[in-house]
Amino acid sequence: MPKIRTIRTRAEMDQRYYDLLVRMIRSQGYRELAAATVFAEALHLVPGVDLKRKVVTHIDEEMQHFEACCTLYDALDAGDLDQHCSSMLREQRPIPAITSFMELGVAQLLYDRASAYQLREYENSSYDPYCRIVGKILEEEEGHESFGAEIMLEFCRTPEQRTNTQRYFNKWLAVSLRSFGRPHSPGNAYAIDVGLKTRDSAAVAQDYLDSLKTIMRVSGLVFPDRPCLMTAGTETSPDVDLSL
Ligand SMILES: [Fe+2]
Ligand SMILES: [Fe+2]
Questions:
Q1: CB atoms within 10 A of CB 157
Q2: 137 C-alpha vs ligand 1 centroid, how far in Å?
């Protein structure tokens, strides 16, 4: 395997590397701004001032993650990331609204954990400025996820609650899985070759799904089946294992 070269500036990249890196930062920027937006819009559903304050801290952290992406994008002279992601969220890929405090917990666990699993791929990115922002973001995402996990567990205590929570679990799992991108694509293989990530999207998505199994067993939730995910607009590759 050829040694992967560390890259620090645009001048060191060829066009293909540049285009892919820009796309990756754009996707992460979208996910960060989507998280900040959906949690901000749900603030009125959070019970009590203390918990609201905590969610505001998470929103602020998501904004800092988004700003870090904007800084990377600027350094690459790639355009206006804020304008791009804001219009994506308004027009092309709106993030579904959260309708209850329970759903906020489910979304924080599933969406933030998906984001963290993707970011872990960039911890040793061949683009050095990317590696430098990932550590802090990952630490904060862990806080968001565990907050979400606590809420989700709380809303799985009775069979009635569990049935309701399962509906929202299905919804946010579908949204989260979509963020992993197409598996086994030529872009994936190239990204691995040049060290922009280490594994194919399918392997990362599988790790993400496996990581949910413990909390799912404890809370009595199950994975939705493929047709159910398909109805929610998410196609899963046949090699993805959805068994518990
Ligand atoms: Fe984030
Ligand atoms: Fe987060």
A1: 12
A2: 6
176 Cα–ligand 2 center, Å: 12
Q: In the CATH scheme, what architecture does the domain 11-231 have?
A: Up-down Bundle (1.20)
Give tens-digit pLDDT for 119-161: 999 999 999 999 999 988 998 988 899 999 999 999 999 999 9
Alpha carbon of 30 to ligand 1 centroid (Å): 10
Rounded distance from Cα 62 to ligand 1 centre (Å): 4
Extents of the domains making up the chain? 11-231
Please list, in sequence order, all residues whose beta carbon lies within 8 angstroms of the beta carbon of residue 174, skipping any fewer than 6 positions away.
Answer: 224, 229, 232, 233, 234
Instruction: Quote the tokens at residue 25.
Output: 């930062």
Instruction: Give the span between the Cα atoms of 196 and 14, in whole angstroms.
Output: 13
Place of tokens 């060829």: 14
How far apart, in whole angstroms, are the C-alpha atoms of residue 185 and residue 200?
A: 8
The overall pTM is greater than 0.90:
yes
